[in-house]
Amino acid sequence: MEIERYRHQLLTKQQEVLNSLRRRGVSCHDQFDPGVLDTIDESMFLQDKESLFAQADRDTQLLREIQKALERIEEGSYGYCLEDGEPIREVRLSVIPWASYCVDHQASREGALHYSEARAMTAYVQDSISGKAE
Ligand SMILES: [Zn+2]
């Protein structure tokens, strides 16, 4: 597995999402390690549209997933399904380098759920595993 390639993809995507959040003036300090989002000026905080929230929510969830993936790279557990520990196919990782589950488990998790709910749930499960959620 070309870990460095995935790490690069993750870092690139992370920067992309951060820039996107920044453009919209969204501050999400309370959801991240301060170090991750210290490039976002708190004074830019403003929220007046539901859609902004929704998009920011998706972005912040994605950032969490990217952050988790980067942590898994550091831990050496990157690329394995969090459900069954099986290797995630490389074709999947090359499309979604922050994937936490193999195709089967991701599909069973998403099921009939709305996409964003499924993403939120994935993030919640990741937090549960890392002990950050109740
Ligand atoms: Zn699996």
3D structure, described in words:
The protein has 134 residues and is mainly alpha-helical. The protein has one domain (3-130): Four Helix Bundle (Hemerythrin (Met), subunit A). Helices cover 57% and strands 0% of the residues. It has helices at 3-23, 50-75, 90-95, 103-110, 115-130. The longest helix is centred in the middle third of the chain and has 26 residues, at 50-75. It is globular, with a radius of gyration of 15 Å. Bound molecules: zinc ion (ZN). Zinc ion is lined by residues 81, 83-84, 86, 101-102, 104-105.
Keywords for this entry:
globular, 5 helices, single chain, mainly alpha, Four Helix Bundle (Hemerythrin (Met), subunit A), 134 residues, binds zinc ion
Number of helices: 5
Q: Could you name the CATH homologous superfamily?
A: DksA, coiled-coil domain
The portion of residues forming beta strands comes to: under 5%
CATH architecture descriptor: Up-down Bundle
Instruction: Please write the CATH class name.
Output: Mainly Alpha
Distance between the termini: 34 Å
User: What global shape is seen?
Assistant: globular
